[in-house]
Amino acid sequence: MAGVTSQSPSAAAKPVVIRMSPMAHFAVGFLALGMLALVLSGPTWVAALLIIPVILSAYIARLRTVADRDTVTARNLLSSETVRWEDVEGLRFEKSVWARAQLRDGRELMLPAVSFATLPLLTEASAGRVPNPYR
Q: Nearest to residue 124, comparing CAs of 2, 4, 1, 3?
């Protein structure tokens, strides 16, 4: 479930932004409704649990991967990390749905909302550094 903001062929310099679908906020809304039953029937301190849906919604809104010709930026709730494409050895998919960039220094960088289906967008944004698996 990734929402994608793509670029037109004439705007090759613009970055590609890959983010979670805004429909994920509906799931958070249903969680909040379910928690509301606990809040209304429990002691007043249980109302503090309603901060959980707020945090989840902020997480959904902030989580994204931004890629351009030179760099890729992975943004999560509290931070973001930008690396140059030259520092990326490759991408891999394991147990999680989202891609992980294997960096030359041995670290891994999770690329939020990047799925196998969005790889052609990364191919275009990275000027071919990420191979298109559909060709």
A: 4
Give the number of domains in the chain: 1
**Exposed, middle or buried, 16 (CB in 10 Å: 0-12/13-18/19+)?**
buried
Tell me how far apart the alpha carbons of residues 124 and 78 are, in angstroms, rounded to a whole number.
28
Smallest Cα–Cα separation from 118: which of 65, 68, 69, 72? 65
Provide the pLDDT for residue 96.
76
Q: Which domain holds residue 90?
A: 2-125
Answer whether residue 130 is part of any domain.
Answer: no
Q: Is residue 81 part of a domain?
A: yes
Closest by CA position to 26, among listed 50, 56, 3, 4: 56
Read off the pLDDT of residues 47-76 as tens digits, 9 standing for 90 and up. 899 999 999 999 999 999 999 999 999 999
Residue 111 β-bridge partners: 99
User: What's the pLDDT at 89?
Assistant: 92
Instruction: Give the CATH number, domain containing residue 83.
Output: 2.30.29
Whole-model pTM: value is 0.78
